[in-house]
């Protein structure tokens, strides 16, 4: 059952023409359930009806013609109730509506199941049979499971169809909705980067130039065969002859008489080379997967492996052919630090990531680079828009495809307005960060995630409040050596002489992966991340601390920050290792090195409740509101599906932050905030009201936050705070702060 289900969903996902996909779907379901009729109706919210889109069993002439109102008949009832309806004698049911065009008089049993995506009914899937009977539990659960899996595929089907019909001359316009990732508006040409050359990530599409596609395919096959020859030669001395025979099998499979012919045929039928390869490889691999014989089953893996190699070579050729435009909108399934580094900074205008959410590291990187980003563009095969003109609206989370001239002009006006506002913030960046009533704030910058690309000017800042050391690790193909790290850290420490530079030890795991240190986990954000990983690998931790200490010689502005601390024992162990590194470096250099100040990130809720003990052990703490929000609310910061639940303005998060501020004050324990909340105008106002005085943020936000803090009276904020803390939802909190800002004339220009 499970494999049947998977196959049906995959087939629908791969068919770019919606009507074909649905026609295939109903036939597959009818066969799988051995029933007499299967139909699918899709909702049209403008017309307020369900349209019969495909059926195997009802009158074919009714397809695309018969519509049933949202409140009509059994189909409407399934939609209204949002649950399956299973009837032995459908005609006897009071909600049954006679629709002569569909010719269903001979069917009695009816099972209808809603197709729901993100709480919205997209359609209804039905099966029918002549006998009077209730469909059994297996049939019902099959249909329910299928409908749930189909929902996200169908949600994008129309967009997919539009895309597949587009060609170089026929440009589609459209509007995609995602989540705001980094503020700002940009225009440019889509440049699609595919991370792993993965078949799953390839959405099938047609081509109108089969000769060109065929030439691509032949070229990729030629390169792949040459690779096999090289591999076979290299392995000749190491593998027994029967194992080496696999390379001959691969050669043969690629030959015209085998998979090759089939792929050529698909290309001749109008599929592009990648799509033809995917369709054939998956078809054959599945055939092998279903075989009883375990030896033959394994051949499915061979075919996939072979296909993967050809695919890599096809994509490499494509990549080489694509000339980078001067206004790149980087589009990827999951934007990574390495992808960002592939594009010269001056060409990079914006980011669109299909995965991820507002506090994914990709979005944080975009904010660090001061470029707009839209995240979580719901599984759309944006790859098909390679080279198209886009507008990215990072304020609203919108992506506009090939917009018309009037829309471009309007967005250009907004871009100019933005630039003028930013210029006004920058006019005051050299002035003190001090409120109207004289309260002083320290404003520091977060850096590191994209350090080679960042252009932070540190002159008007109070130091580096969070240097994320991950980037140099992610950008390499192995762990950086102690010398490499020392040189890099030295540069950072020198960039802010006489001001604190808070360097965080390696925080990989979660959504930050090292290409050479694979961590496969079901729950990466709750897994081997940050200090947990480095304490398990003291050699990595010690080398990093030693490099920091060496870099700090004669500068003495280094502070060390420990990420993801959830237990005091981790603090003790880290301090022991830091002490050891200090001792070693002192010994090697024959200088008595003092231990730098050490702090702990407050980002895992457990440690919030151990602040007094923590204050005894370390010198300061820094609140990471990104993770603290994720862990307090149990919402993955990277998952667009639950992005609506992720909000650092949730009253529970605010109350936790307030308690922390008060406790830290009582303990005289220095506390700062380095999460993204400090860069949010509404957030920083509330944090200031709670008593926080040290903030660290992306350099692109610093001028704005300083401008804001210079215009407030703490006493006013202190009146606002209790109202906000009493709010029942994040939405109400934002409304309160918004109203406060609106009432203050001097803050009118702020686009919070
Ligand atoms: C945080 O969690 O708030 C933080 C600053 O660290 P990161 O975003 O790198 O996890
Ligand atoms: Mg964190």
Topology diagram in text:
Layout: H1 2-14, H2 18-33, E1 37-44, E2 49-56, E3 67-69, H3 73-81, E4 85-87, E5 109-117, E6 120-129, H4 137-155, H5 157-165, E7 174-177, E8 179-182, E9 185-193, H6 210-235, H7 241-254, H8 256-268, H9 273-289, H10 294-321, E10 328-332, H11 337-342, E11 348-353, H12 361-369, E12 373-375, E13 389-393, E14 398-401, H13 405-426, E15 442-447, E16 464-468, H14 470-474, H15 482-495, E17 501-504, H16 531-536, H17 538-551, E18 558-562, H18 568-589, E19 597-602, H19 605-608, H20 611-617, E20 620-623, H21 625-633, H22 651-667, E21 671-673, H23 681-690, E22 694-698, H24 699-709, H25 714-725, H26 730-743
Parallel strand pairs: 9-10, 10-11, 11-12, 15-16, 15-22, 16-17, 17-18, 18-19, 19-20, 20-21
Antiparallel strand pairs: 1-2, 1-6, 2-3, 4-5, 5-6, 7-14, 8-12, 9-13, 13-14
Helix pairs in contact: 1-2, 1-4, 6-7, 6-10, 8-9, 9-10, 15-17, 17-18, 23-25, 25-26
The structure holds phosphoenolpyruvate and magnesium ion (MG).
Magnesium ion (MG) binds at residues 563, 603, 624, 626-627.
